[in-house]
TrEMBL record:
Keywords: Membrane, Transmembrane, Transmembrane helix. This is MARVEL domain-containing protein. The chain crosses the membrane at residues 44-63, 90-111, 123-146, 166-186. The keyword Membrane applies.
Length: 199
């Protein structure tokens, strides 16, 4: 009876202190679980990435769809060939996708549901996030061209509103690239070991 009671107690202690090992299946993770995840560097990076991507959405939406469409119509005034409309749409779509992935990552570790998944899931998820970082890198370059197109067209005829919004979007996309790369490259290269992170 003492042995049977000890196992749940150990599991409860692990959840409380943010351990990265599970007493039931002995699977060792590279990140802490429970509330300890929020205090770990990976949890903090998740929070910062989440905030940055939200700001990306706000900045991308500052240029109205009508203004972006007009900038594309006035293409003879600029040498930028990238579609501002398509760039804005892609930025918003991948920003929302990134938010969902970060939420999933955080929920899995905070709730300890990550223990129900295999190590292959961890590897696959890390690779997906690094691919997303590469997509953000491309979108950051496109957003910079989007800003130039807005300046060359609507800016020249005095109709530019929220000047610099696309440039801000571009900058934040590059910031997100760095944060995501650091977070998930560290997870790929870090050796799994038992360690408790107190709440």
């Amino acid at each position: 009876m003492a042995t049977n009671n000890a196992q749940p107690a150990a599991a409860g202690a692990n959840a409380k202190h943010g351990s990265n090992t599970n007493a039931d299946n002995k699977r060792i993770l590279k990140c802490a679980t429970g509330l300890g995840f929020l205090k770990s560097r990976h949890g903090i990076l998740d929070i910062v990435i989440f905030i940055v991507v939200i700001v990306i959405l706000v900045c991308a939406d500052m240029n109205s769809s009508a203004d972006v469409h007009d900038a594309d119509i006035l293409y003879p005034m600029t040498d930028i060939e990238i579609s501002a409309t398509q760039t804005k749409g892609a930025v918003i779509a991948f920003a929302v996708f990134g938010l969902l992935l970060i939420l999933v990552d955080s929920v899995l570790y905070i709730s300890s549901w990550i223990y129900r998944l295999s190590a292959k899931f961890d590897l696959t998820f890390n690779i997906i996030m690094l691919v997303l970082a590469f997509v953000y890198l491309i979108l950051g370059c496109c957003a910079a061209a989007w800003e130039k197109k807005m300046e060359d067209t609507l800016g020249k005829i005095g109709r530019a509103k929220h000047s610099g919004a696309a440039a801000g979007t571009s900058f934040l996309l590059f910031v997100a690239v760095i944060l995501i790369a650091v977070n998930f490259i560290l997870r790929l290269t870090k050796k799994a070991k038992e360690e408790d992170i107190a709440v």
